[in-house]
Amino acid sequence: MTALKHWLIFILICVSGSLNASAQEAKPLRGVALIIGQSAYAHIQPLPNAGQDARAIGKLLTDLGFETRNAPDRNAKALKREIERFIEDADGADVAFVYYAGHGIEAAGENWLVPVDADLSALDDAATRLVAASPIVDRLEATVPVVIFLLDACRNSPFPANALLKPDAQSAAAPIIQAGLVPSRGMALIEDQPAPIENVGVVMGFAAEPGKAALDGPKDGNSPYAAALLRHLSASNGAAFGDVMTMVTEEVYLDTGTRQRPWINASMRRLLYFGMTPEAGDKDEAQITGERRQLLLTIASLPQIGRRQVEAIAKSDQVPLDSLYGMLRAMGAATPKDPAELDSVLRAQAARLKTILAETAALKRTDPEITRLSSLADRALAEGAVATAVSFREQAKQRATTAGDALADTEASLKERRLEIANVFAKSGETYVLAFNFAAAAADFAGAFEQAERWDIERAARYKMLQGESLTNQGLYRADSEALKEAIEAYRQAGRIVSEADDPANWAKSRPALLRR
Question: Which of 141, 211, 352, 494 has the CB geometry, 3.0–4.6 Å to 510, for a possible disulfide?
């Protein structure tokens, strides 16, 4: 393993019950991982993505420093043998990590892993033909301080709706839950169980909430759960494991449009961290991901009523949920407490966002660097990274200004480039509006007006009106009377540019309600 890919795994041990207690020095640990990917089912619905998910997670954990054992497409006998070997090898390790992708069912209070040779008859002898999850956790917990078991297996049951399962020949048959899995029965007992080792605890992660199905993901891709793990666990950079799994939960929630939300069942006595010396990577990507991760933690702290309000507006106004949450975070302390007022503000921002997205699709750009920076800003905004989007818009403006000073002195080239520069300033202004920085937005729209005034009168008038609108919002939201005066003058200038006779519709838009009184 190269120095650049040297990841450390460690535990920070904190004194129980005290947030301010001093921590013992972290130490490198030995981690072992078992990766099970069940795709090629012989008698029930195959799951092509499960194998891909397992391979990707296996590589990730290997890069993280785990001793990784891969177990793809195992029948019942082979799967049980793999598990036995892993439990034996895990003895003496510090962290045992199990990831399972494949079919899983819940019946008789137990989650069952489904081998690739399972058929309907396997339900009559589940102890032999299927694999119960809880005993794996129990046995690992007896010899390993930290056990992490992630089940990407919460899909709909592959068996008939009326199928029954018998754990063994002596047990009564029990119905199979048709969607999702349930909390492990052993988890609630961990705090009361004597352990032969100093047990730190168990984390059991489910791809979906109890009793709900998980999505399999796009063809030849990864499941939403695996994709989120790959994105956030690989960039943990010393973040607490609990925070990383919170990010994974909210990532899946956003990426599936609220249809799926993972769930964690944990009884950790210590704080678990995955640390690393990160490789030098794409700084632009890191900037977007960094703000995205903070947004995910912010979403996790929102009350359910706040979530429902944002979800409802995103759905009714047809705007990206990620962006709307990002704008809510950008408001910060200025966020209205009254739900009705917050609804009004968010809907106004949603309307602006729709306009921006529509214009972005039709925008023509000629400068490669401006195109790159503008695309990064668009992506950051789509991921709710509003502050990062503002940063990229600022860089694009700097590039546009530099390019404007070096324009060839030909009429055709001058017009095309000046309008491109005007667009850059306008896009920056629109992004500042979404970040609730109306003063900066007004300045940018003024800059856009200056670039476009000579070349496109209709566009110039629109920029002047947007400047007036931003100044109006600055006056209303910040109690800035000077901004309101400037807004009136901006509207008047827009009105002079577009006369009533030339364009009545635009002329009417340029007359604010204040002037019509």
Answer: 494
Residue 24 is predicted with a pLDDT of 46
What confidence score (pLDDT) does residue 365 get?
Answer: 62
Q: Give the angle subtended at the CA of 142 by the CAs of 111 and 123, to the nearest 5°.
A: 20
Q: What is the pLDDT of residue 432?
A: 94
Angle between helices 438-452 and 386-405 (to 10 degrees): 30
Radius of gyration for the alpha carbons in the chain, expressed in angstroms and rounded:
28
**The pLDDT value given to residue 212:** 84
Which residues of the chain are modeled with pLDDT < 70? 1-28, 179-200, 236-238, 267-281, 361-366, 403-413, 499-517
CA dist 171 and 204 (Å) reads 26
DSSP per-residue string spanning 172-233: PPEEEESB-----TTGGGGGGS--SS---EEEEEESSSTT-PPP--STTS--HHHHHHHHHH
Strands 263-266 and 146-152: unpaired
Domains of the chain: 25-218+259-271 (3.40.50.1460), 300-516 (1.25.40)
Backbone angles phi and psi of 101, in degrees to 5 = -120, 125
Both structure tokens of 180 = 């999702």
> How many C-beta atoms lie closer than 10 Å to residue 247's C-beta?
27
CA 380 to CA 451: how far, in whole Å? 26
Q: Contacts from 502-507 at CB under 8 Å and sequence distance 24+?
A: 503/458, 506/458, 506/461, 506/462
Q: Which amino acid is at 137?
A: V
Quote the pLDDT of residue 512.
47
The C-alpha atoms of residue 206 and residue 190 are separated, in whole angstroms, by 18
The dihedral formed by the CA atoms of 497, 501, 506 and 509, expressed in degrees to the nearest 10: 90
pLDDT of residue 186: 35
Q: How far apart are CA 464 and CA 349, in angstroms?
A: 19
Instruction: Read off the DSSP letter of residue 66.
Output: -
- Tokens in use for 464? 């002047």
Residue 469 has a pLDDT of: 95
**Hey, is 344 helix, strand or coil?**
helix
What is the reported pTM? 0.78
* pLDDT tens-digit series, residues 11-29: 433 323 333 333 445 556 7
Token pair 């995103």 is found at: 314
Q: What angle do CA 30, 32, 35 make, to 5 degrees?
A: 160
- Alpha-carbon span 328 to 322, nearest angstrom: 10
The torsion defined by the Cα of 106, 107, 111 and 114, in degrees rounded to 10, comes to -80
pLDDT digits (tens, 9 = 90+) for 404-456: 655 544 455 678 888 889 999 999 999 999 999 999 999 999 999 999 988 88
